[in-house]
Amino acid sequence: MLPWVPQALLALLLPTLLAQGEAKHRRGPQAQDASRPALLRLSDHLLANYKKGVRPVRDWRTPTTVSIDVIVYAILNVDEKNQVLTTYIWYRQYWTDEFLQWNPEDFDNITKLSIPTDSIWVPDILINEFVDVGKSPNIPYVYVQHHGEVQNYKPLQVVTACSLDIYNFPFDVQNCSLTFTSWLHTIQDVNISLWRLPEKVKLDRSIFMNQGEWELLGVLTQFQEFSIESSDCYAEMKFYVVIRRRPLFYAVSLLLPSIFLMVMDIVGFYLPPDSGERVSFKITLLLGYSVFLIIVSDTLPATAIGTPLIGVYFVVCMALLVISLAETILIVRLVHKQDLQQPVPAWLRRLVLERVALLLCPGEQSTSRRPPATSQAAKTDDCSDMTNHCNHLGGSRDLEKTPRGSGSPPPPPREASLAVRGLLQELTSIRHFLEKREESREVARDWLRVGSVLDKLLFRIYLLAVLAYSVTLVTLWSIWQYS
Predict the structure, then answer these.
(1) I want to staple 187 with a disulfide (CB 3.0 to 4.6 A). Which of 36, 235, 317, 333 is the partner?
(2) CB atoms within 10 A of CB 154
(3) Do 241 and 87 touch, CB atoms closer than 8 A?
(4) Phi-psi sector, 310: left (phi>0), alpha (psi -120 to 50), beta
(5) Stronger pLDDT, 357 or 48, i.e. the higher one
(6) Phi and psi of 184, rounded to 5°?
(7) Going by C-beta distance under 8 Å and a sequence separation of 6 or more, which residues neighbour residue 23?
(8) Are 166 and 194 in contact (CB under 8 A)?
(9) Confidence band for 96, pLDDT divided at 50, 70 and 90
(10) CB 59 within 8 A of CB 96
(11) Bigger pLDDT: 287 or 413?
């Protein structure tokens, strides 16, 4: 055999042996990876060279579109004084990460994987109205689909600023906005869209806790673009949470007691004006209403820019009670009996007892103008009696001056005539006293008639004012309740 044949065979077999060795070396790691769980292999595959600080697009000109959704779970607190709304929502968002894509056939047909949120890029979407950090649970994972879609679901306790209008309390409707926007990225980098249709978002009350003070009317959505500078434009999505207060509790605890006290004040006008019980009754009502206002002052919402209409209602009711008390004091002063009471002036008699009485109580006008017959008859009888006494006394004096005849009776003794004269003076004093007392009684009756007519007039004016005020408030509250 020729000496160069073994060398030629070795030269031909050496490349084949080297190729087989490289193939065995490559199949060794693959066989080792095939023995590991598919989830571990997929996680290592996705996060091996992943850079979470870079926006996950292959072409930097392509914006990352983030679709968001909000479902209101509960209204936790409405702070009217600080203008703060606290809600609990379910927040959902998804976007496409071009660096988190794989072929499911290479990883045991896995189409969805949960990975830590801190390991990937997350959009910096915040709520502009945030004023405090709520007690939200931390959800450390997100779902990733095989085509690169990242789904981030988390519950949030949102404490936001809201312009609360409390003028219609307790029939108020509040409209608070939650504005989601990227704090840094412009619309060329991060765009925002709505996950569901606006109609579905508006009418979704599937998980809302509907047993509290507030009722969810709907959630309105609006997308808009705004710019801080001329070159930078940002995308934002607004969710308007429209809620309405349930007024039953406040109507029972605030309105009904006030209405009852006002009704009792109106009923108090039926007490006689010449009795002192009406003044004490009105003062008791006023004190009771003052205590009621002190009790309900903590229940009423308070702001620095406005007062609810129900607060104005309480103040006006308090003013009406004061006016009612002042009217009662005036009437009691008019009808109060006193010894040196002046007669009713002629102009007041004509105005009250003739004109006003004709409008209010026409049946009593004739009796008020007719003088009492008994007093006139009494005066006539007294005068006739005194005339008889005078004639009798004068006749006895004449008998003393005329001479006595043989058959005439003897004259009365002088002591008897003096006794009759003293009795006559006493009777005259009694007559003058009775006349003065009758005059004072007549003056008191006139003032009582004037006070009764004025009391009826002021009562009707007061009743009309209360009814007009009540009808106005009920109309306004009904419009607000059913609008």
Answers:
(1) 235
(2) 16
(3) yes
(4) alpha
(5) 48
(6) -120, -45
(7) none
(8) no
(9) very high
(10) no
(11) 287
pTM assigned to the model? 0.71
Looking only at the bridges linking them, the beta strands covering 173-182 and 141-145 are unpaired
Cα–Cα distance measured from residue 343 to residue 202, given in angstroms and rounded to the nearest whole number: 76
Position 205, amino acid:
R
Rounded Cα distance between 219 and 175, Å, is: 9
pLDDT of residue 460: 86
List of residues 6+ apart from 136 with CB closer than 8 A: 154, 155, 156, 157
DSSP string of 8-53?
HHHHHHHHHHHHHHHHHHHHHHHHHHHTS-HHHHHHHHHHSS--TT
pLDDT in tens, 331-341: 887 777 655 56
Amino acid letter for position 262 = M
Distance CA 152, CA 91 (A): 8
Q: Going by DSSP bridges, is the β-strand pair 214-226/173-182 parallel, antiparallel, or unpaired? A: unpaired
Count Cβ atoms below 10 Å from residue 209 Cβ, excluding itself: 14
Cα distance between residue 418 and residue 33, in whole Å:
154
Q: Does the pLDDT value for residue 440 go beyond 70? A: no
Question: Phi and psi at residue 96, in whole multiples of 5°?
Answer: -105, 125
DSSP 94-132: EEE-TTS---GGGGTT--EEEEEGGGS----EEETTEEE
Q: Could you give the CA distance from residue 279 to residue 266 in angstroms, rounded to a whole number?
A: 13
Least confident residue range of 7-21, 305-319, 398-412: 398-412
Q: Which residues of 222-233 are buried (b: 16+ CB within 10 A; e: fewer)?
A: eeeeeeeeeeee
Give the length of the chain: 483
Quick check: 446 and 425 in contact, CB under 8 A?
Answer: no
In terms of DSSP bridges, do strands 112-116 and 149-161 run parallel, antiparallel, or are they unpaired? Answer: unpaired
User: What mean pLDDT comes out for the span 424-444?
Assistant: 76
**Over the stretch 48-71, which tens digit does the pLDDT of each residue have?**
989 999 999 999 999 999 999 999
Half-sphere exposure for 215 (CA within 13 Å, toward CB): 11
According to the model, what pLDDT value does residue 337 have? 63
Q: How far apart are CA 315 and CA 293, in angstroms?
A: 9
For residue range 216-225, list pLDDT tens digits in order: 999 999 999 9
Structure tokens at 157: 């306790």
Is the bond preceding residue 37 a cis peptide, omega within 30 degrees? no
Q: What average pLDDT does this structure show over 358-371?
A: 52
